[in-house]
Amino acid sequence: MFRKPPTEEYPEVKKPTAPRFHGRHQLNRHPDGLEKCVGCELCAWACPADAIFVEGADNDDTDGGSGRFSPGERYGRVYEINYLRCIFCGLCIEACPTRALTMTNEYELADHSRAELIFEKQQLLAPLQQGMEQPPHRMVEGMEERDYYQGKVTKATPAQHAEVEQRGTIESTESSVEQ
């Protein structure tokens, strides 16, 4: 009763959040870099605030195609979360069948522009870790979609590294020809 009230020195001193804190969303990747999102749109359907927009597209492994972004038949081509509408309830996380969408402990989302609070896919994707390759690239040879979800893929293979390097060489050659 006669204690001095505790004062938080925020933002100079930040208290750690609880492990299950609902902060900014993150789109996760498989260990070889492919995206876990299969563009099913269940997260958007589950969102009571209508803050999520997903547009799925088919993976195209054919020559001249767009490539493979996820191990499934489809991937989330467009993925947006409007943080002006989001109520951080976590229903989208529970609805996701592939655990592609999770919530981080980041809570500082304030900005000077309303447009900056609509996060797009590249802002939500988890950063590439060591051993991952930037999609699009083929799945690990001899593996099926279910092998990815069973955890049998542990990193990108030399064949995937070579494919990404070759694609980068072709793209740089094409851009120099256009100039």
TrEMBL record:
PROSITE patterns: 4FE4S_FER_1 (PS00198), 4FE4S_FER_2 (PS51379). GO terms for biological process: aerobic respiration. GO terms for cellular component: membrane. SUPFAM superfamilies: 4Fe-4S ferredoxins (SSF54862). GO terms for molecular function: 4 iron, 4 sulfur cluster binding; metal ion binding; NADH dehydrogenase activity; quinone binding. Keywords: 4Fe-4S, Cell membrane, Iron, Iron-sulfur, Membrane, Metal-binding, NAD, Quinone, Repeat, Translocase. Residues 1-24, 154-179 are annotated as: Disordered. Its cofactor is [4Fe-4S] cluster. Pfam families: Fer4_7 (PF12838). It comes from the Eukaryota. Residues 1-15 have a biased composition (Basic and acidic residues). Gene3D superfamilies: 3.30.70.3270. Residues 27-57, 77-106 form the 4Fe-4S ferredoxin-type domain. Residues 169-179 have a biased composition (Polar residues). HAMAP family: NDH1_NuoI. Belongs to the complex I 23 kDa subunit family. Core subunit of the mitochondrial membrane respiratory chain NADH dehydrogenase (Complex I) which catalyzes electron transfer from NADH through the respiratory chain, using ubiquinone as an electron acceptor. Essential for the catalytic activity and assembly of complex I. This is NADH dehydrogenase [ubiquinone] iron-sulfur protein 8, mitochondrial. It comes from Platysternon megacephalum (big-headed turtle). The lineage of its organism: Eukaryota, Metazoa, Chordata, Craniata, Vertebrata.
